[in-house]
Design a protein that fits this description.
Strand order of the largest sheet: 4-3-8-9-10
Shape: elongated
CATH class of one domain: Mainly Beta
Number of strands: 12
Largest sheet: 5 strands, antiparallel
Radius of gyration: 22 Å
Distance between the termini: 78 Å
CATH superfamily of one domain: Carboxypeptidase-like, regulatory domain
Structural class: mainly beta
Order of helices and strands: HEEEHEEEEEEEEE
CATH architecture of one domain: Sandwich
Strand content: over 45%
Length: 191
């Protein structure tokens, strides 16, 4: 009987004391749209969508829906300026973390998860759809549809190339991300 009482504290000591928690972050997007000659594309209508699932850990989905944690889909409707630029900041959101008291590691992870957003370009046929994700090497853009020359699960020829970077940003003692990208059309599809 005494072994049970000793083993439980020993197990807790070896496992450490970590508690679930959350931290606040935000994501900013800055982009430029240019034609194949490098000239800016003004007055392009752009819709950006930021998913409500961002920042939720695996157990969060078991314990509830994103709305239960105050998360919601966020949308920005933008028009490129005379230089082909857009800029928006998605509202603050939380991400799941663990607070480790013993060992004294603080909050883990130290940075929010890499962001991703959906982007729709245009008002009517043809429409272009992209998903842009951040990662440790910068950004990656995926064409979802529009100008598709084959099934979506096969190789897709994109009408544009997307380059950019993911930059860490600190504000109000929060850590966030800035996705900076440039979308350059490859063909004469700058409608």
């Amino acid at each position: 009987m005494r072994i049970k009482y000793i083993s439980i504290p020993l197990l807790l000591f070896l496992a450490g004391c970590c508690f679930p928690g959350s931290a606040v972050t935000r994501v900013r997007v800055e982009g430029q749209f240019i034609d194949q000659q490098g000239k800016p594309l003004p007055d392009k209508n752009i819709i950006l969508g930021f998913p409500k699932q961002y920042g939720l850990a695996g157990l969060d989905a078991i314990w509830g829906k994103p709305e239960d944690y105050g998360h919601r889909n966020q949308t920005s409707i933008l028009t490129t300026d005379n230089n082909g630029y857009i800029s928006t900041i998605f509202g603050p959101t939380t991400y799941s973390c663990s607070v480790c008291i013993f060992p004294p590691l603080g909050t883990l992870p130290k940075k929010p998860p890499y962001p991703a957003f959906k982007m729709r370009i245009g008002d009517g046929p043809p429409l272009e759809y992209y998903v842009i994700t951040g990662n440790k090497n910068g950004i990656k853009a995926i064409v979802l549809s529009g100008f598709v020359k084959g099934p979506l699960d096969k190789s897709i020829d994109a009408p544009a190339e997307v380059t950019g970077e993911l930059v860490e940003e600190t504000f109000n003692n929060w850590v966030g991300w800035i996705i900076k990208f440039k979308l350059k059309y490859i063909d004469n599809v700058t409608k």
